[in-house]
Specification:
75 residues
Length: 75
């Protein structure tokens, strides 16, 4: 499996988080649409199927990590 560069993942996570705030503040359809696009890119970049799992995988650098996966637990 190809893995996204860590810098790309960090940028996608930061962009997604900023869009969550922006959408919460003004509720624009543009922000919602862009947030959905970034969520999709995160899923593709991490090999996951939903944005919450993609965020965990991106933050921890784990390709295809699942929320029930014990590899995201700290020691």
């Amino acid at each position: 499996m190809l893995l996204a560069h860590p810098v790309i993942l960090r940028n996608l996570v930061a962009r997604y988080e900023a869009l969550v705030v922006l959408q919460a503040e003004n509720g624009s359809s543009d922000a919602r649409r862009e947030k959905e696009d970034v969520a999709y890119m995160l899923c593709v970049a991490t090999g996951t199927g939903d944005v919450d799992t993609a965020l965990v995988a991106a933050v921890h650098g784990l390709p295809g990590a699942r929320t029930a996966d014990d590899s995201v637990l700290s020691g």
